Amino acid sequence: MENLELKGKIREGRGKGVSRRLRKAGLIPGILYGGEKNLPVIINQKDMMNILKQGGENIIFLFSIEGENGVNNRKVMIKEIQRHPLKSEIFHVDLMEISMDRKIKVNIPVRIFGESIGIANKGGVLSHLTREIEIECLPGLIPDEIKIDISPLDIGDSIHIRDIKIAKDIKILNNPNETVITVTAPEVKKEEIKTEEEVGVTEKEEKEEKKEGERKKEV
Predict the structure, then answer these.
(1) How much is the pTM?
(2) Under CATH, domain 105-184 is a member of which superfamily?
């Protein structure tokens, strides 16, 4: 996927007003990090969406800045994306220039597969608590996802960060004791059971109502 390319321009002006005008024109304000200095840039919304569609957020691609003298066709990754809360529109993007021989830290999505025996046979409930795992490795070793087989899990079983097997050249940075997945017993609806005290109160109320009714008849 490293042959994918994205072009941008140096962004002039700052502030919400400038950013709003850029978005209306189909452009995304962004910042390129990792070079001698951070560069404010503009990227075409459709071009950025195409990169994401082909490779996801952890893809390495070439980024060039129109009209720039000197370094061009940088190898970059997406550092952070800010999106519209209701639409697919991207509000802002941060890019990070990388070196293929220097380790970086990235968040990788967790994908589960298989069918837990505790769920299939006993109606257990699956809780997927950690959906991204932070790793550190060379850019060329970054996996698209971390796969976890949940089929051996019975009720009461859990998978923690320490249980995940990964290539020796990749380091997981999360706390080893962090729970990723757990299977718990199904919730049982308890019938409303009256306590002895509640039964006693009810009987007392019934007796008082009966006495009251008898008094009214006598009158």
Answers:
(1) 0.73
(2) Ribosomal protein L25, C-terminal domain (2.170.120.20)
Name the helix (H) or strand (E) containing 178: none
**116-174 pLDDT, tens per residue?**
999 999 999 999 999 999 999 999 999 999 999 999 999 999 999 999 999 999 999 99
5-98: which CATH topology? Answer: Ribosomal Protein L25; Chain P (2.40.240)
Task: Please name which of 157, 205, 206, 203 lies closest in space to residue 183, comparing C-alpha atoms.
Answer: 157
Q: CA-to-CA distance for 16 and 173, rounded, in angstroms?
A: 35
- Cα torsion angle, 98, 103, 107, 109, sign: positive
Phi and psi at residue 31, in whole multiples of 5°?
-135, 135
CA distances from 140 to 30, 110, 170 (A): 24, 19, 11
Parse the chain into domains and list their residue ranges.
Answer: 5-98, 105-184
Closest CA to 29 of 71, 72, 68, 82: 82
Residues of the chain with pLDDT under 50: 1, 192-193, 196
